[in-house]
């Protein structure tokens, strides 16, 4: 089973949501800077990470694009194997929607696409951690199921 997510799998009624392309980096970068609170994103680290992520197996990068070609949101997800779930699970690492487009359905549609992708790779579940948008995920049907711990291993 392929873990690649292709544009032909994106339902037609979600024309604003599409798989990211390498050339989208410049338009996604401002959203990445706005997303981060724990770290200060550096462009020199973002550029190679972006180029790798948009083509990596087991990785999903989506963008929300307006009819004018503006990117107003993005989602970064991945999947990995587990022992306890009898196979793969999927994880949303980052979901960001430009402030002026929040509460318009863009975040919901990005998550719907992530759920479709997770189903297509037969993931047992799709999970994420959120400090600032718990109410959003609860409204989408997600449940609060764990406490998130981290140990910062390098400077921010």
Topology, element by element:
Elements: E1 17-19, H1 25-35, H2 43-53, E2 59-65, E3 71-82, E4 87-97, H3 106-120, E5 126-128, H4 134-139
Parallel strand pairs: 4-5
Antiparallel strand pairs: 1-2, 2-3, 3-4
Low-pLDDT sequence parts:
1-14
Main sheet attributes: strand count, strand direction, barrel closure: 5 strands, mixed
Count of DSSP E strands? 5
The level of helicity is 25-40%
What is the H/E order?
EHHEEEHEH
Strand order of the largest sheet: 1-2-3-4-5
Q: Quick check: average pLDDT?
A: 88
The helix tally amounts to 4
User: Outline, from the CA principal axes?
Assistant: globular
Distance between the termini: 38 Å
Radius of gyration: 15 Å
Features:
28% helix; 156 residues; 5 strands; globular; five-stranded mixed beta sheet; single chain; alpha+beta
Question: Can you walk through the features of this model?
Answer:
The protein has a five-stranded mixed sheet with strand order 1-2-3-4-5. The radius of gyration is 15 Å and the shape is globular. The protein has helices at 25-35, 43-53, 106-120, 134-139; strands at residues 17-19, 59-65, 71-82, 87-97, 126-128. Helix content is 28%, strand content 23%. The chain has 156 residues and is of the alpha+beta class. The longest helix has 15 residues, at 106-120. The termini are far apart. The chain contains four helices and five strands.
């Amino acid at each position: 089973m392929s873990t690649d997510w292709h544009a032909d799998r994106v339902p037609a009624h979600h024309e604003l949501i599409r798989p990211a392309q390498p050339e989208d980096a410049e338009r996604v970068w401002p959203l990445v800077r706005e997303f981060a609170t724990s770290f200060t994103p550096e462009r020199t680290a973002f550029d190679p990470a972006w180029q790798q992520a948009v083509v990596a197996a087991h990785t999903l990068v989506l963008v929300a694009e307006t009819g004018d070609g503006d990117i107003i949101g993005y989602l970064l997800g991945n999947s990995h194997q587990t022992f306890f779930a009898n196979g793969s699970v999927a994880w949303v690492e980052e979901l960001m929607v430009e402030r002026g487009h929040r509460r318009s359905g863009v975040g919901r549609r990005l998550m719907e696409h992530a759920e479709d992708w997770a189903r297509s790779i037969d993931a047992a579940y799709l999970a994420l951690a959120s400090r600032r948008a718990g109410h959003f995920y609860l409204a989408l049907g997600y449940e609060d199921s764990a406490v998130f711990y981290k140990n910062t291993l390098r400077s921010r």
